């Protein structure tokens, strides 16, 4: 019995028309789902009544080139439960053909009294069917009838499809069309995910992610005969191959993600692009359905989060290009983009292995980039992982017009465009259906190239970031933060272990007059605050002057490899500086960076304002971790056995100010005697540690073997701190004795 439903609820008539269905474009690709409406909230529409208060009505529908998807609402106005399994639906057209309606979700079919439930169906149709000719035939199973059906009424599809409806959110394909050995209900619903246009080896490709949902009751693989291609607005066809997911068995009512890879021309128009499924029937290709790609093509702006593609249920990982900076140099445009991977979900998510490439222009040019940082294999909820991708683009390229392609690395293998085979499982459709007719249309047109086999690449794109808004990198000298010697350097965990504390203790200039440069020596104190022995980090660092010139730090020639818990270690770095006498050279920016984790360039872990320390003018001398106080001094000479000697008599207090570990590469003390003409007449070395070290109290420093003519008045003794660097010996004047 068919009636108009009037004055039942509060919703307007438009609410019964088709609602736009959003395809999940990025992240976890799922087939589109239709939510059940609020009970007893329907306006005027046609309904098939089974009693005074209980009825069936169409909730919504969507018609594609090869299938009809619709939702039937079963309203139970009785005081008892009703079973939808006692009823069935099928699709009929104006010519009298009928088509099987398959339930696309698993439900019990039981509807409690005073409630209503929505049941979602699909039917495969031949091309050319229109909404105006289609109806949903509602019947009750009756085995006394010749066709086992007691027909109750028909619901017109046109009543719930609006004019100018959006394309169907998914394309449902019956797999028996391709493989007659499969079960009658073997069908897959294909929903588009994101599509990205990328360049590889000078050629342009379109990668398209497709969610395939198994609507049948048996596990299936995508049949080998199911082919796909892109069709542009000019009718040109580009054969697609399956880059991943072809051999996966899809469980009933579950989805899996396939990635299609298509070689395209660089001038292919992206507007009006469609994805067409087809199969070969002898010399003809038969179209099975198309999906519009207008909303699938996807690029992401700087600072915008993108759901990470291909995730498992429950995961919510996002990727974002946080910033992109560049500097124009003699060898090209140096660019660095920071990508942040965040776990915004409530479950632990695996960290993928990522790489990147910068693509620019229409010629298919690109430059690869990698981040080789060692990181955990998983992201806890609310945890983030940061990637730095550096590259040098050709001179003249505008970084704002470039794109960063984020690739997920995978093991390379060889496969086919599709798999085949089934595994039988038990299941129930929840309603009956009848066997219907089906038909397909023959497609034609030129195809660029392709076949059923493909070599799966070792990586697949998961996002394309548009770098519009990239900024020119500033001089590190101007961006350095204030820093006080001896305090902790705020460095990222990518450079040092979080349990290690690093501080700059000293920064002095040393002399290299004969070599035409001077050497700055920095002493770093590294403390292990953890409970286990850790590797001593090799800090990559540089001093940057106010003109942007960078002077790389060289680590002392030998150092310990590990540091015990609760201990501190001192390691020295040297920097070759221009031999200038201007006061402005005393100020620098200390840039600590990581150059191991990126394919080229470096990643700054912190930039700090520092200055060369002036020399002490009093009697106390600082040579970290010692302080030397000179109480008294005198110079004389002696004669014994035909040999003359100069003697420097010192009275000193030596204090070990900080209990840190120092090694044999620690700086030494050198006494240098110079005559009145400026000639060095002899040197004597001493140390602050080990055998024969200087101690508090009286010290006697002698230089023997002088000739008679070298004994004269006006002798000066220079006291130096001497340190061996990879570039030679550098010395710092500590005090002068006359």
**How much is the average pLDDT?**
81
Helix content: under 10%
- β-strand percent reads over 45%
Class computed from helices, strands and strand pairing: mainly beta
Entry summary:
The chain is mainly β and 738 residues long. Strands 13-14-15-19-18-17-20-21-34 form a nine-stranded antiparallel beta sheet, with no helix packed on it. A six-stranded antiparallel beta sheet has the order 1-2-3-4-10-8, with no helix packed on it. A five-stranded mixed beta sheet has the order 22-36-31-27-28, with no helix packed on it. It starts with a strand and ends with a strand.
Spell out the blueprint of helices and strands.
Layout: E1 2-4, E2 46-49, E3 55-63, E4 67-75, E5 82-83, E6 87-92, E7 98-100, E8 102-103, E9 110-111, E10 116-124, E11 135-141, E12 149-156, E13 171-174, E14 187-200, E15 203-214, E16 219-220, E17 227-231, E18 237-244, E19 255-264, E20 274-281, E21 284-292, E22 300-301, E23 306-307, E24 317-329, E25 332-343, E26 349-350, E27 354-360, E28 365-370, E29 378-379, E30 384-393, E31 403-409, E32 413-416, E33 422-423, E34 441-443, E35 453-456, E36 459-466, E37 471-472, H1 476-479, E38 500-510, E39 517-528, E40 534-535, E41 540-544, E42 550-552, E43 554-555, E44 562-563, E45 568-578, E46 587-594, E47 603-611, E48 620-623, E49 626-640, E50 643-656, E51 668-674, E52 680-686, E53 697-706, E54 716-725, E55 728-737
Parallel strand pairs: 22-36, 24-37
Antiparallel strand pairs: 1-2, 2-3, 3-4, 4-10, 5-9, 6-7, 6-11, 8-10, 11-12, 13-14, 14-15, 15-19, 16-33, 17-18, 17-20, 18-19, 20-21, 21-34, 23-24, 24-25, 25-30, 26-29, 27-28, 27-31, 31-36, 32-35, 38-39, 39-45, 40-44, 41-42, 41-46, 43-45, 46-47, 48-49, 49-50, 50-53, 51-52, 51-54, 54-55
């Amino acid at each position: 019995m068919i009636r108009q439903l009037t004055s039942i609820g509060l919703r307007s008539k438009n609410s019964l028309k088709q609602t736009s269905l959003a395809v999940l474009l990025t992240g976890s690709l799922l087939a589109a789902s239709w939510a059940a409406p609020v009970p007893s909230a329907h306006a005027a529409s046609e309904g098939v009544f089974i009693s005074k208060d209980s009825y069936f009505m169409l909730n919504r529908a969507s018609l594609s080139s090869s299938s009809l998807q619709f939702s039937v609402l079963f309203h139970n106005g009785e005081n008892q439960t009703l079973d939808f399994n006692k009823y069935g639906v099928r699709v009929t057209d104006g010519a009298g053909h009928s088509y099987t309606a398959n339930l696309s979700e698993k439900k019990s079919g039981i509807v409690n009294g005073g409630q209503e439930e929505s049941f979602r169906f699909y039917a495969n149709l031949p091309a050319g069917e229109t909404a105006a000719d289609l109806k949903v035939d509602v019947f009750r199973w009756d085995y006394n009838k010749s066709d086992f059906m007691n027909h109750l009424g028909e619901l017109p599809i046109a009543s719930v499809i609006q004019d100018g409806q959006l394309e169907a959110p998914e394309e449902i394909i019956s797999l028996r069309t391709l493989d007659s050995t499969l079960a009658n209900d073997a069908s897959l619903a294909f929903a588009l995910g994101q599509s990205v246009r990328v360049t590889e080896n000078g050629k342009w490709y379109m990668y398209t992610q497709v969610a395939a949902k198994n609507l049948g009751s048996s596990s299936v693989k995508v049949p080998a005969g199911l082919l796909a291609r892109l069709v542009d607005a000019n009718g040109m066809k580009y054969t697609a191959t399956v880059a991943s997911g072809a051999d996966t068995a899809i469980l009933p009512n579950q989805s899996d993600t396939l990635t299609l890879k298509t070689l395209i021309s660089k001038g292919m128009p992206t507007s009006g692009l469609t994805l067409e499924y087809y199969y070969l029937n002898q010399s003809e290709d038969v179209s099975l359905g198309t999906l519009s790609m207008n909303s699938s093509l996807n690029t992401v702006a700087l600072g915008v989060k993108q759901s990470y593609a291909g995730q498992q249920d429950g995961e919510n990982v996002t990727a974002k290009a946080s910033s992109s900076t560049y500097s124009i140099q003699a060898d090209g445009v140096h660019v660095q983009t920071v990508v942040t991977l965040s776990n915004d979900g409530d479950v632990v998510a695996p960290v993928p292995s990522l790489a990147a490439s910068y693509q620019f222009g229409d010629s298919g040019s690109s430059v690869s980039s990698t981040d080789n940082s060692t990181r955990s294999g998983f992201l806890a909820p609310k945890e983030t992982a940061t990637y730095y991708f550096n590259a040098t683009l050709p001179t003249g390229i505008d970084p704002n017009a470039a794109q960063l392609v984020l690739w997920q690395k995978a093991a390379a293998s060889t496969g086919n465009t599709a798999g085949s085979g089934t595994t039988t499982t038990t299941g129930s459709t929840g309603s009956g259906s009848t066997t219907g007719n089906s038909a397909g249309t023959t497609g034609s047109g030129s195809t660029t190239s392709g076949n059923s086999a493909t070599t799966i690449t070792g990586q697949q794109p998961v996002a394309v970031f548009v770098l519009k808004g990239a900024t020119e990198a500033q001089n590190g000298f101007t961006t350095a933060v204030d820093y006080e010697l001896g305090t902790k350097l705020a460095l990222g965990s990518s450079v040092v272990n979080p349990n290690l504390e690093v501080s700059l203790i000293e920064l002095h200039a040393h002399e290299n007059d004969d070599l035409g440069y001077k050497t700055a020596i920095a002493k770093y104190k590294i403390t292990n605050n953890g409970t286990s022995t850790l590797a001593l980090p090799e800090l990559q660092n540089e001093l940057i002057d106010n003109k942007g010139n960078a002077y790389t730090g060289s680590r002392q020639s030998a150092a310990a490899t590990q540091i015990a818990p609760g201990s501190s270690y001192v390691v020295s770095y040297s920097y070759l500086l221009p031999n200038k006498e201007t006061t402005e050279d005393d100020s620098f920016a200390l840039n600590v960076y990581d150059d191991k984790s990126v394919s080229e360039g470096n990643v700054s872990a912190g930039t700090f304002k520092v200055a060369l320390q002036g020399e002490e003018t009093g009697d106390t001398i600082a040579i970290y971790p010692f302080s030397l106080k000179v109480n008294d001094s005198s110079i004389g000479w002696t004669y014994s056995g035909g040999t003359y000697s100069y003697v420097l008599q010192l009275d000193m207090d030596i204090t070990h100010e900080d209990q840190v570990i120092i090694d044999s590469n620690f700086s030494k003390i050198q006494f240098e005697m110079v005559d009145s003409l400026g000639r060095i007449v002899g040197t004597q070395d001493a140390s602050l540690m080990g055998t024969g070290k200087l101690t508090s109290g009286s010290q006697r420093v002698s230089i023997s073997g002088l000739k008679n003519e070298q004994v004269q008045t006006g002798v000066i003794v220079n006291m130096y701190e001497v340190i061996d660097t990879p570039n030679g010996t550098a010395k710092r004047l500590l005090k002068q004795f006359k």
